[in-house]
């Protein structure tokens, strides 16, 4: 048992192993891919709907200043009305974001693992409460990979923010004399540029993480030779038992075939390798048939049985080889052999009359 536990996992996982892992909810899944896809979808939606968003903000700003100009008439009711107007103004502009978040989040997950609902992945497992198991997970390669991904994302965001700030620092000074609309458009442009750079970097990290998760999952599914052997026994049966069954089946088939030799009209043989028994009953057969055949040891046994039952044995080497190779037991002899078989049967009938 200790030897089995010490075996290295060198064998590729079987389909049964993959199916069981999938049913347990253990699949190659990258959490970075949905996040990156979600950010990319939001950014593209932001760029596509930016005119609609700007118009919504202009209208909202106008409504706010209009109500503030009526300071003497402000009341709780008017503030409620203003809030409702602001909400109805911004909702059409930001509604696409909600749809994008839902659709992209679902698609990014489904494309990775397909559609499969299982509760086993969230079922409580007491072995996960073990401190030793927790320490193993803490210092595992997966934890190291997660740490490196987090550090990479922090570094990327910091570098992109710093570079963008240094590029835009001269433009920021000129915003003090710009119109509010120009400031708003500038902010949208900067946000889109920074977000685009960050999203591209995160997509690259997500693709790398997905490939790593596939490799790591495949590594976890690897099996030892003993596990493959045991699974083969469970699914296909013990190879030794199957070999014994096949041997018994061959013996039964040979026994049935030997019972047909005494009934044959003649046994056509190659002196050392092949024996073929033929039978022709004019009342029920359209042509002669091969009722038994054998090679080597089986051929010798057939000759012994034929002698014991006075079945004529005729040496026709080429004919014996051809019949053995081309005609199965119980099949009618092909027409190209008719002449040779007719000569043999005529000889056999003459022997019987004598």
Features:
mainly alpha, four-stranded mixed β-sheet, rod-shaped
Please describe what this structure looks like.
By secondary structure, the protein is mainly alpha-helical. It is 69% helix and 6% strand. It has helices spanning 2-6, 15-23, 32-68, 76-113, 131-138, 141-173, 180-221, 225-236, 239-260, 297-308, 317-326, 338-353; strands spanning 266-269, 274-279, 289-295, 313-315. A four-stranded mixed β-sheet has the order 3-2-1-4, sandwiched between helices. Helix 6 (141-173) runs antiparallel to helix 7 (180-221). It starts with a helix and ends with a helix.
Instruction: Show unreliable segments.
Output: none
* Proportion of residues in β-strands: 5-15%
> Which percent bin holds the helix content?
55-70%
Q: Please compute the radius of gyration using only Cα atoms.
A: 42 Å
Number of strands: 4
Name the shape in a single word: rod-shaped
Number of helices: 12
For the sheet with most strands, the description reads: 4 strands, mixed
The first-to-last residue Cα distance is: 74 Å
Quick summary:
This protein is mainly alpha-helical and 354 residues long. It has twelve helices and four strands; from the N terminus they run H-H-H-H-H-H-H-H-H-E-E-E-H-E-H-H. It has helices at 2-6, 15-23, 32-68, 76-113, 131-138, 141-173, 180-221, 225-236, 239-260, 297-308, 317-326, 338-353, and strands at 266-269, 274-279, 289-295, 313-315.
């Amino acid at each position: 048992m200790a030897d089995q536990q010490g075996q290295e996992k060198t064998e590729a996982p079987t389909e049964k192993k993959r199916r069981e892992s999938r049913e347990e909810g253990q699949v190659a899944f990258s959490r970075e891919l949905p996040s990156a896809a979600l950010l990319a979808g939001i950014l593209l939606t932001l760029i596509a709907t930016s005119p609609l968003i700007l118009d919504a903000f202009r209208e909202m700003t106008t409504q706010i200043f209009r109500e503030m100009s009526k300071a003497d008439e402000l009341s709780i009711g008017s503030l409620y009305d203003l809030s409702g107007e602001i909400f109805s103004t911004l909702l059409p502009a930001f509604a696409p974001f909600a749809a994008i978040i839902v659709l992209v989040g679902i698609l990014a997950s489904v494309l990775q693992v397909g559609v499969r609902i299982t509760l086993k992945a969230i079922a409580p497992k007491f072995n996960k409460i073990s401190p030793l198991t927790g320490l193993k997970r803490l210092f595992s390669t997966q934890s190291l990979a997660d740490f490196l991904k987090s550090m990479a994302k922090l570094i990327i965001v910091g570098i992109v923010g710093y570079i963008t700030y240094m590029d835009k620092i001269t433009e920021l000074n000129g915003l003090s004399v710009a119109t509010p609309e120009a400031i708003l458009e500038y902010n949208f442009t900067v946000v889109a540029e920074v977000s685009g750079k960050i999203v591209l970097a995160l997509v690259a990290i997500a693709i790398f993480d997905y490939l790593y998760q596939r490799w790591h999952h495949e590594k976890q599914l690897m099996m030892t030779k003993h596990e493959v052997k045991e699974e083969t026994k469970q699914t296909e049966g013990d190879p030794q038992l199957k070999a014994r069954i096949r041997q018994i089946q061959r013996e039964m088939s040979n026994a049935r075939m030997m019972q047909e030799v005494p009934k044959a009209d003649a046994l056509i043989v190659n002196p050392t390798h092949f024996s073929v028994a033929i039978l022709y009953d004019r009342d029920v057969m359209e042509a002669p048939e091969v009722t038994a055949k054998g090679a080597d040891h089986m051929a010798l046994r057939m000759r012994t049985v034929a002698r014991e039952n006075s079945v004529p044995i005729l040496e026709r080497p080429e004919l014996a080889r051809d019949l053995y190779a081309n005609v199965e037991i119980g099949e009618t002899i092909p027409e190209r052999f008719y002449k040779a078989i007719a000569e043999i049967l005529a000889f056999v009938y003459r022997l019987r009359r004598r």
